[in-house]
Amino acid sequence: MPVRGDFAHDIHYWILIPSIGATLWLITWVVENARLCERLITHLSANPSLWHKEATDWAINHKKVAPECVHDWLDVHLVARLTATMQPLIFGPVLCIALLLMARSPAIDDWDVPWGLELIYITMLLYAISAEVMLQRGATSARTKALNQLIDKISAERNLGKPDEVVIKRIESEIERIRNLREGAFRPWYEWPLLQSFGGFGSLWVALQYLAGVWGLGL
Going by fewer Cβ within 10 Å, which terminus of the chain is more open, N or C? Predict the structure, then answer.
């Protein structure tokens, strides 16, 4: 560290330790909320849902959902809205970690990053990313449950003596609607607008190479 005297050295740690502690607290809070979201989604996906009439009427009249699929669609819609609200919170810890790294970069102070501090940063970043993994895992579970129930409804309809092709077509349409849903955690992380606004993987890799070169890591 480019410091002179014990006082400057102590000030560095007085700032660094609370900064890391506050970031870790923020990450823990976000991950815990993501875990609770996943737990709610898991309970929601455990059994077929039975929604209130006001909710089903809203879905049928305003969202044009087929009556045969309304309960499954509402499950998926709830998960999409819930995770869409939760996902922006994940960027907070990631931004804090980025600022901690930037503060030691040659663009600011040109301080080295000891291996122990690198390990802390990497661990915190992976911990923050685990929140998104939980949300995506819960969303996948909810989508799979809804699709399986709708497919079972098609099978039951086809096993009737005179299957109603209109009903089957409506259910098939809702199946495609749910499969193509790209809201909240149903949107893959590589389709995030924030990542795409920076040019996707190509620009991200160039940025990593630049930072590695600046710190002399040589990726």
Answer: C
Q: How many beta carbons lie within 10 A of that of residue 80, not counting itself?
A: 21
Pinpoint the alpha helices (H) of the chain.
Answer: 5-46, 53-62, 70-103, 115-158, 165-179, 193-197, 201-215
Q: Are 84 and 186 in contact (CB under 8 A)?
A: no
- Of 163, 172, 90, whose CA–CA distance to 129 is shortest? 90
Give tens-digit pLDDT for 122-153: 888 889 889 989 999 999 999 999 999 999 99
Q: Which tokens is 153 given? A: 């409804």
Closest CA to 81 of 190, 185, 191, 192: 185
CA distance 205 to 42: 35
For 13-62, what is each residue's pLDDT tens digit?
A: 677 788 889 999 999 999 999 999 999 999 988 888 889 999 999 999 99
Q: What is the DSSP letter of 189?
A: G
Instruction: Answer for the pair 195, 204: CB distance below 8 angstroms, yes or no.
Output: yes
pTM: 0.76
DSSP state of 185: G
* Cα–Cα dist 112/33, whole Å: 34
Say if residue 203's pLDDT is above 70.
Answer: no
**3-state SS class at 191:** helix
Taking 80 as the threshold, does the pLDDT of residue 10 lie above it?
A: no
Instruction: Yes or no: say if 87 and 184 are a contact pair by the CB < 8 Å rule.
Output: yes
- Answer for the pair 95, 80: CB distance below 8 angstroms, yes or no: no
**Residue linked to tokens 């810890």:** 93
